[in-house]
Amino acid sequence: MGSRPDRRGLTRGLALLVALALAPATVAASCREDAVWLRGDWGEAQFRIALADEPDERAQGLMFVEEMDRFEGMLFVYERPQRVSFWMKNTLIPLDMIFADARGVVRRVHENAVPGDLTPIPGGDDILVVLEVNGGMARELGIAPGTVLRHPALGQDAAWPC
Q1: Does the N-terminal or the C-terminal CB of the chain have fewer CB atoms within 10 Å?
Q2: DSSP character for 154?
Q3: What is the pLDDT of residues 72-125, one digit of tens each?
């Protein structure tokens, strides 16, 4: 009498094959213009973002915004890596500024920028993207230099590509 295959084993094996086949599509689907992922020793987080990749959008930033949901923010994208500096003119809520290089590696975090303050907040040299989120989120999550960002604007040479 021959042995019958274990249906549970076949089902598990088929499920694993399907998951592996779909994994690249799932990763690609998670990379969207309106979202940025962050990953570090602390774990992962996703923020829904407004994209500021044109000079006028970057100049406006989050001025006059009265509130943001907890996992919302704005991603500033520059044409090339450069020295950047921000201020809080006409900004109504405290913000954390997360400065990252062309590979999406966080180089500096400025926590709880003061609303309305005109003091320049330097991000450093060779910065390509800046993520602004609600003040206190970087500390709460553990976002620090070395954290990596994932967004389509970072391209295939990113530390965590789409």
Answers
A1: N
A2: G
A3: 999 999 999 999 999 999 999 999 999 999 999 999 999 999 999 999 999 999
Tell me the C-alpha distance between 87 and 59, whole Å: 10
* Contact call for residues 134 and 108 (beta carbons, < 8 A): no
Q: Which residues of 129-140 are buried (b: 16+ CB within 10 A; e: fewer)?
A: bbbbbbbebbee
Is-above-0.90 flag for pTM? Answer: no
Helix (H) / strand (E) containing 86: strand 72-86
Tell me the two tokens of residue 153: 């604007």
SS3 55: helix
> Measuring CA to CA, which residue among 84, 88, 74 is closest to residue 122?
84
Provide the edge-to-edge strand list for the sheet that holds 43-52. Answer: 106-113, 95-100, 121-134, 72-86, 43-52, 35-40, 148-150
Task: Report d(CA 151, CA 32) in Å as an integer.
Answer: 7
In 3D, which of 30, 33, 36 has the Cα closest to residue 132? 36
